[in-house]
Structures are given as C-alpha cells and as structure tokens.
C-alpha cells in the first residue's frame, strides 16, 4: 500500500534559521496523525511543506506516491510550474488557524468557488454538493451569510466544508482551534472527529488539543526544535512518553 | 458678493448651454473616460508586474512608473502631439526583411489621440501604485487559502485578491478621475477643443473672461458631483461582506466636498 504522505529527511531553512532538520514520517490512508510540540518546533512549517506552500531545501516529500511541487531528474529536484503544483494541491485540503475564508463571498460562494473555477464542476451540481457539505458541518442555514457575520467556530466549519468540496484525498489542519474562543473549540473538533470516524479521511492535524489527539488520532508525533522527538500510538506518546522532552512538554500543557 | 453686477450672471446663463461649450464639455468627458480606462487597465497590469517575483518583470514596471511619474504631464502631451515629427511612420515587419504594413504616424496621431495617450499612459503610472497598495492590503492568508484549493496565481488575483483590493483602490481612483477631469484641460496646449479651451476661444473674441471661466467651472462642478455619486455606488458594491459600509450618499458627499483624506473610508 502506498503511504498517503511520505517524508524523507525534509529540511527547511528560512534564511540562516533551520526550521526543519530532517523530518521523516509516514501516514497511511485513513490514518489520523496528530503533530504536537511547543511553538517554534516546526510543526506548522512541516504541514505547509506537504502542499508546497513552503518549498523544501532538502529531502523528499511524496503525497500518494507523487513528489509534491518537484520533478526529479537524476538526483536533482526541479520545481514544477505553477499549473502542475496547483493540480496536485486540488487533492490536498487545508484548514488554517485563521480560517482565511474569502471575505467578499458568502459561505456558499466560498465553498463552490474552487469546484466551479478549478474543477469546472457545473454550477448546479457544485451548489447542491456545497449545501450538502454545509449541512454536514451544521451550517445549512448560514449559506448566505458573509464570513464577517459568522463566529470563529462557524467560520472554521465553513473552511472545512470549503476544503472538502474539492474531494481531497488528504486533509491538513494547521492548529484549527488555536484562534477560537474556548467554548467554540468543541464544535470544530466534533466536525473533525466526524470526518475521521464516518468517512475515514486521512488527516494530518497540528494541534494542542491533547484530548482530541488521544481519542481520534491513530498516530501521535511530538516535534521539538525541527526534529521528530517521538512518534507512536497516542496512548503511548501522550500517556507514557519515553523521551524526557515529551514528558516536559506534556507536564506543561496538561 | 455674488450680486456684484460685474459678474454678469445673464451672460453666464447665456453661454452655459452654448453649442461650443457643450461640444467642449463632450470632448472633456470623452478624454477623461478614455484616459481613465487606459490608466486603470495599465495600472492593474503594472501593479501585478511590480509584485512579480521575476526581477526583470518588476524592474520593467518600476522603470515605467519612475519615468512617467517623473516627467510633467504637459511635456508628455506635447511629446505625443509632436511624435509624428520624430517618427513620421512606423513599419511593421521583420527587420531587414519583408514589410507587412506601414502606419502613417503623422496622420494617425490627431491631437485627440495624442491627448488620450499622454493622459492615459501617465495615469497608468499613478494607478499602478494605487492598485499595488490595494493588492498588498489584502491579507496573505487569502492567497494561501486560494492556492491551497488549487487556484492558479492569475485566478487567485482575479477572483480573490482584486475584488477585495477594490475597497482600497476605489477612493483614490475617484480622486484620480476627478483630477483627470480637470488635468485634461492641459490639452488646450495642443489646441484640442475641450471645455476650458472652448471657453477661452469665446472670451478671446468677446472679452467676457470671468463669465466664461464661471461657465466652465459650473460644468466642471456638475461633472465632479456626478462622479461622487458614481463612486458611492461602486464603493457600496465592493463593501459586500465587510462591517464598514461606505458613508451614506449625503455624508459621502460632504466628506468629499471637505476632502479630508483621513476621514474618508
């Protein structure tokens, strides 16, 4: 079986600062991987590399058996043209910490935009499935609202529906609940749990929600200072960690 | 003050609808509209070029903006008017090879074309900076979200960035249009019969200088007033999805009359 995501020695630098110092990970289809770690550990940078929002400086990154953003000729990588990168990204959904809904479009318009403009889905079909997705995230009555009139939790659920509308093989979540008021965190985690349990979506989730990682995650990864410190079943990594750094982190957040 | 008989209000009323004045008014409006269309389209292209990661592309746009903002627009108007003397005709073809067509520049560059080109190309340089300000005012997360959905750079710009940049672009563009309406009177220097030039022609013959300048001013005021209204409706359209709606028509009007930039939102 091909891994959904395979990272091999991924390095990333911002100027002189080395943010990723050789990340190697594998995520199998239908698995939910939760990445935890202190801020500045490189976890957000890593998932941004998975859909080529960041270019990598060394190593290899495959999604569903295909290199992301690059073409390999001999031993060197050549960056793919904009169009090719865009095509690959249609297979990977992404949800951002700050939602990033398109402010000038209603919830429904946000969801149908990419299917209509990128996938050339006929409008009536796109609208029908968008309404179905908004219903699934519990927002069918908010179709015609602009993002500025939605709560953070509602905006994030629209953002999840928007990503799902492209029928991705893989969903990336970059701290999806970190910008939310505490009472709104639950509704977003509930939608994510539904994705994992009901449709078996492959997910990579950067999060600080230890509870979510323990209950929904199949794999937990602890990152610190640009390296993977510990990886394994959430029950092990998050309950009985082997590494001192993991223990220290958990003692601070729990 | 206004009752001073020297104003000659009856003369003003008489010339307000003089066919020569109306014809000049029409030319002023055509010139303004054409120059602004060229300016806005060129401004968008130049702004996108300026923001390109390719240094050659952004450098070319920078040089254009530097040159056209750095020379007086009057010089540019005169230059385009006399370009026929510099290049009597332009041949389209392969260098040292066959010639496909020849354009007679002297015949093609009428004063109207020269005026439109000069004002439009000059405006493009200013609009480029206005559009660029609008584009960089849109949160980077919007671009990232669009890219993550598989939208290309051009599609992202057209569907996501520009519509949201419009809120920042429109108020200064309204300024530019109003400014253009009046700057276009510089074409009097190439004897193009716009509103002001038509007034000048008339008072050169009858010496009613003040009255005809008032006639021209009244028409300029009417035109700018109509533009305020247009700007209000365009702003309202692009305010969709935002909490700050543009000021009501009347409030917008008052603000534009007092013209305090930081009060305008």
What is the CA-CA span between the terminal residues of chain B? Answer: 36 Å
The helix content of chain A is 25-40%
Task: Quote the average pLDDT of chain B.
Answer: 87
Strand content of chain B: under 5%
Largest sheet of chain A, described in full?
Answer: 6 strands, mixed
- Low-pLDDT residue spans of chain B: 260-265
What is the number of strand segments of chain A? Answer: 12
Approximately how much helix is present in the residues of chain B?
over 70%
Topology:
The complex is a heterodimer of chains A (about 250) and B (about 260).
Chain A: E1 5-14, E2 17-27, E3 32-36, H1 43-50, E4 58-63, E5 66-67, E6 70-73, E7 76-79, H2 82-89, E8 92-95, H3 107-117, H4 123-136, H5 152-164, E9 170-174, H6 182-199, E10 202-206, H7 210-216, E11 219-224, E12 227-232, H8 234-237, H9 244-253
Parallel strand pairs in A: 3-10, 3-11, 8-9, 9-10
Antiparallel strand pairs in A: 1-2, 1-4, 4-5, 6-7, 11-12
Chain B: H1 9-16, H2 19-50, H3 55-70, H4 73-81, H5 83-86, E1 89-93, E2 99-104, H6 105-108, H7 111-137, H8 140-148, H9 153-183, H10 195-206, H11 209-238, H12 249-258
Antiparallel strand pairs in B: 1-2
Task: Give a verbal description of the structure.
The complex is a heterodimer of chains A (254) and B (265). Chain A is of the alpha/beta class and 254 residues long. Chain A is 37% helix and 27% strand. Chain A has nine helices and twelve strands. Chain A has a six-stranded mixed beta sheet, with helices on both faces. In chain A, strands 2-1-4-5 form a four-stranded antiparallel beta sheet, covered by helices on one side. In chain A, β4 and β5 (66-67) form a beta hairpin. The longest helix of chain A has 18 residues, at 182-199. Chain A is globular. Chain B has helices at residues 9-16, 19-50, 55-70, 73-81, 83-86, 105-108, 111-137, 140-148, 153-183, 195-206, 209-238, 249-258, and strands at 89-93, 99-104. Chain B has a two-stranded antiparallel sheet. Helix content of chain B is 72%, strand content 4%. Residues 260-265 of chain B have low confidence and may be disordered. Chain B contains twelve helices and two strands. Chain B has 265 residues and is mostly helical. The chains are: A alpha/beta (254), B mainly alpha (265).
């Amino acid at each position: 079986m091909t891994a959904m995501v395979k990272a091999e020695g991924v390095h990333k630098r911002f100027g002189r600062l080395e943010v990723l110092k050789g990340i190697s990970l594998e995520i199998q289809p239908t698995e939910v991987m939760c990445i935890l770690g202190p801020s500045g550990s490189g976890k957000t940078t890593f998932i941004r590399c998975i859909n080529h929002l960041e270019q990598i400086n060394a190593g290899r990154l495959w999604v569903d058996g295909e290199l992301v953003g690059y073409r390999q000729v001999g031993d060197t990588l050549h960056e793919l043209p904009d169009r090719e990168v865009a095509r690959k990204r249609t297979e990977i959904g992404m949800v951002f910490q700050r939602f990033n809904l398109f402010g000038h479009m209603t919830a429904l318009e946000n969801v149908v935009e990419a299917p209509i403009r990128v996938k050339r889905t006929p409008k009536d079909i796109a609208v029908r499935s968008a309404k179905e997705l908004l219903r699934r995230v519990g927002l069918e009555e908010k179709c015609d609202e602009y993002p500025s009139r939605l709560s953070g939790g509602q905006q994030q659920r629209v953002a999840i529906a928007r990503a799902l509308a492209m029928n991705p093989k893989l969903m990336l979540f970059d701290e999806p609940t970190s910008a939310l008021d505490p009472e709104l965190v639950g509704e977003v985690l509930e939608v994510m749990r539904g994705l994992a349990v009901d449709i078996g979506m492959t997910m990579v989730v950067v999060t600080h929600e230890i509870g979510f990682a323990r209950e929904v995650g199949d794999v937990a990864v602890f990152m610190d200072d640009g390296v993977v410190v510990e990886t394994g079943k959430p029950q092990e990594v998050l309950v009985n960690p082997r590494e001192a750094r993991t223990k220290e982190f958990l003692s601070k957040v729990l | 003050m206004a009752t001073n008989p020297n104003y000659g209000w009856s003369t003003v009323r008489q010339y307000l609808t003089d066919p020569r004045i109306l014809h000049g008014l029409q030319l002023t409006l055509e010139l303004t509209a054409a120059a602004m269309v060229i300016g806005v389209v060129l401004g968008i292209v130049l702004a996108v070029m300026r923001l390109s990661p390719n240094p050659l592309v952004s450098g070319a746009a920078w040089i254009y903006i530097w040159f056209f903002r750095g020379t007086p627009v009057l010089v540019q108007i005169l230059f385009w008017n006399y370009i026929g003397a510099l290049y009597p005709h332009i041949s389209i073809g392969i260098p040292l090879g066959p010639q496909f067509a020849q354009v007679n520049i002297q015949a093609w560059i009428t004063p109207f074309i020269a005026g439109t080109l000069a004002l439009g190309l000059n405006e493009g340089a200013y609009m480029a900076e206005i559009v660029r300000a609008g584009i960089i005012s849109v949160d980077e997360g919007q671009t990232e979200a669009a890219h993550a959905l598989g939208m290309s750079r051009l599609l992202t710009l057209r569907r996501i960035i520009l519509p949201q940049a419009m809120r920042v672009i429109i108020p200064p563009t309204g300024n530019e249009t109003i400014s253009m309406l009046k700057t276009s009177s510089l074409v009097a220097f190439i004897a193009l019969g716009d509103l002001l030039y038509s007034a000048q022609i008339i008072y050169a013959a009858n010496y009613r200088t003040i009255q005809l300048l008032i006639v021209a001013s009244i028409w300029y005021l009417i035109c700018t007033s109509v533009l305020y209204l247009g700007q209000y409706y365009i702003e309202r359209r692009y305010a969709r999805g935002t909490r700050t709606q543009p000021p009501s028509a009347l409030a917008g009007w008052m603000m534009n009359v007092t013209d305090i930039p930081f009060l305008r939102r």
